[in-house]
Amino acid sequence: MLFTKEDFGDDFIWGVSTAAYQIEGAHDTDGKGPSIWDTFTQQRKKIANGHNGNISCDFYNRYQEDLILLKELNIPNYRFSISWSRILPQGIGFVNPLGISYYNRKIDLCLELGIQPWITLYHWDLPQILQQKGGWINRDVIQWFSYFTEVCVKHFGDRVKHWIILNEPMVFTGAGYFLGVHAPGKKGLTNFLAAAHHAALCQAEGGRIVKSLLNDCKVGSTFSYSHIEPFSQKDNDINASKKVDALLNRLFLEPLLGMGYPTKELKILERIERFMLNGDEANLIFNMDFIGLQNYTREVVKYSFFTPFVKARIIKADKRKVEKTLMNWEVYPPSIFYALKRINEYPGVKEIIVTENGAAFIDKIEEGEVMDGKRLNFLKDHIAQVLAAKNDGVKVKGYFVWTLLDNFEWAEGFHPRFGLVHVDFETQKRTIKASGKWYKNFLKA
Ligand code: FCB
């Protein structure tokens, strides 16, 4: 399908997304306190090749050049997260003026360049000192997060009009507190359910705080969401796929919309009740201005007797012999269409913005160029699906590519490259990839 930017209308929002820990580096500069990712990456065998984000893209020191690059790419909206422990090295209390000044300079330069800044409050880097008190498992996280939110709104709210509360609560609670493969490396159902409930309360509370302090702003939160299909039409595979859908796609969205946790499809979630206090049911609800959809692939699910709690397992792309990215995620553009359609069906959803979509492939610099045709096609095919959904009546109002620069991809280290811009991590040289040039051209005024 051929399309142009005009097909989306003048008010469609185009952008690119990043996260503090993945690009900033400067892990102990200017009074920053350690985060759970600083600690986790120090532990043996947690991250592929022993990588860490201590330096990463050195964006902390190079933000000026990188924002100018963003401008050069004609990208009008820039989503980034605030490193909590840069602003609050003790997690709460003392506000680090150097941390505030860094984000102030960054926001001011965006605005000078005509780029709209979009803040994500929490993209997974909890201050380590709060983890020592239990982190997301401790209900006090609601107070800690509220304080952090207030500080950010107070300092940046005069200029930043778009606020995102959490980045993918399912991923940071699932990978960080159930599977133990992300920071802080905790495992087990009880840890997970406590962390999940507190994150669900924080996503709503954060929304309330931002809206109560700022009159003129839009607030949303982001959700990982993949179209899910059963491996076969057998009843047990269909049931398994419904359970995984409840867990991966619905667990955080539905309580926000006033529907409670999806316990009907996934009984085990009833155990969240243990962590519920009076008033929580109402406090889980908040009417966001927009829902951020983050979509990368589809999942195919099979019944599995041996998998505890869900009795289901995901059949990865390599086992299905389908086209895949370096993350072993299937390339399946209609997934974003189905996800948009489905989120759009919830009565409480006002607007949807695709806050992340992108792909990692092997990139090579040849004669100063990176011809990343696979990524380019991935983006084109997904954007075409977004247009199809929009034309079908879905209230989708924007699209952000993940991501600007190749960066630290969490447990996978630096190997999977997702950037529109290639980064040589030895020299910090930036090279715009063919996909970046395509996006630039597409966005040309
Ligand atoms: C998402 C994360 C983002 C990045 C992409 C590839 O789940 O939000 O930080 O790692 O995946």
Task: Give the SSE map.
Layout: E1 13-17, H1 20-23, H2 36-40, H3 59-72, E2 77-81, H4 84-87, H5 97-112, E3 116-122, H6 128-131, H7 141-156, E4 162-166, H8 169-177, H9 189-213, E5 218-224, E6 227-230, H10 235-250, H11 253-256, H12 280-283, E7 290-294, E8 298-303, E9 312-314, H13 317-320, H14 334-345, E10 352-356, E11 365-366, E12 369-370, H15 373-391, E13 396-402, E14 421-424, E15 429-432, H16 434-443
Calculate the mean pLDDT score and round it: 98
Classify the secondary structure makeup into a structural class: alpha/beta
CATH top level class name: Alpha Beta
Radius of gyration (CA) equals 21 Å
Number of strands: 15
Largest sheet: 8 strands, parallel, barrel
Ligand list: beta-D-fucopyranose
**Overall body shape:** globular
Our measurement of the CA-to-CA distance between the termini, rounded to an integer number of angstroms, reads 21 Å
Number of helices: 16
Q: Estimate what percentage of residues fall within beta strands.
A: 15-25%
Structural write-up:
- A hairpin with a 2-residue loop joins strand 11 and strand 12.
- The chain has helices at 20-23, 36-40, 59-72, 84-87, 97-112, 128-131, 141-156, 169-177, 189-213, 235-250, 253-256, 280-283, 317-320, 334-345, 373-391, 434-443, and strands at residues 13-17, 77-81, 116-122, 162-166, 218-224, 227-230, 290-294, 298-303, 312-314, 352-356, 365-366, 369-370, 396-402, 421-424, 429-432.
- The model has no long low-confidence stretch (mean pLDDT 98).
- Helix 7 runs parallel beside helix 9 (189-213) and helix 15 (373-391) runs parallel beside helix 16.
- With 445 residues, the chain is α/β, with parallel strands linked by helices.
- The protein has one domain (5-227, 246-296, 326-444): Alpha-Beta Barrel (TIM Barrel), CATH 3.20.20.
- The protein is globular and about 55 Å long.
- The protein starts with 12 loop residues before the first strand and ends with a helix.
- The chain is built from 16 helices and 15 strands.
- Helices cover 37% and strands 16% of the residues.
